[in-house]
Specification:
It contains eight helices and seven strands; from the N terminus they run H-H-H-E-E-H-E-H-E-H-E-H-E-H-E. By secondary structure, the chain is α/β, with parallel strands linked by helices.
Length: 202
């Protein structure tokens, strides 16, 4: 289009790919960045590059971390007998804010969703079972804290079925004061904390 900058349009096109960002918002962000001093924009660019290049996932629990193992898995004060199973790393960050859970985590990296061709082998369920079978980490309780939607329910039932033979492992789920169909990301800390405190046997 005549009278526009191709470089600006390329920036808008990339920014518009961000979740919740349409072309209008992307244009505002691009124009805002143009008004900033060079140092601010360079700092932002470097932070994004470091985010992609330097961040890793904990080989034990799967959470996004600066190092491997993560700080939670390294913390000797955490209760090793409890594992809280969540869908994504952001769920760990939200639960940690409640200060209700002092055990360890297991991030599945997704949920079973046949409609999206995502089966049990496509998420970190095998790794969960390996952790439970390890002799050096005696697991007494597995807490299922997946999103209360159809995919989360299906994944919870699948994991519960796998854990049935383990008589010494109690399977619980966070209480459903959380509305069906709502993702943990949009639950306030008080509600999430109460849900953890009043969890029930699966």
């Amino acid at each position: 289009m005549e009278g526009t900058s191709e470089i600006l349009e390329q920036a808008i096109e990339q920014l518009a790919k961000l979740p919740g960002t349409g072309r209008k918002s992307a244009r505002r962000i691009a124009l805002f960045l143009l008004k900033q001093n060079d140092e601010s924009v360079i700092n932002l660019a470097e932070a994004l590059i470091n985010l992609k290049k330097s961040i890793t996932r904990c080989s034990t629990c799967g959470v996004i971390s600066d190092g491997d193992p993560c700080s939670i898995c390294q913390n000797a004060k955490r209760q090793t007998g409890q594992i809280c199973v969540v869908e994504e790393s952001q769920d760990v960050f939200l639960i940690e804010k409640t200060n209700e859970f002092r055990g360890r985590y297991h991030v599945l990296g997704g949920v079973i969703s046949p409609l999206d061709n995502i089966g049990p082998d496509d998420v970190r369920i095998k790794q969960l079972m390996q952790r439970i079978n390890e002799d050096d980490e005696q697991i007494d309780e597995v807490i299922l804290a997946l999103n209360p939607d159809s995919e989360g329910e299906a994944t919870s039932y699948y994991i519960n079925k796998l854990l049935k033979p383990f008589d010494d492992v109690k399977v619980t789920r966070i209480a459903y004061g959380i509305p069906m169909g709502t993702e943990l990301e949009f639950i306030d800390e008080a509600t999430l904390g109460r849900a953890f405190a009043s969890r029930n046997t699966f």
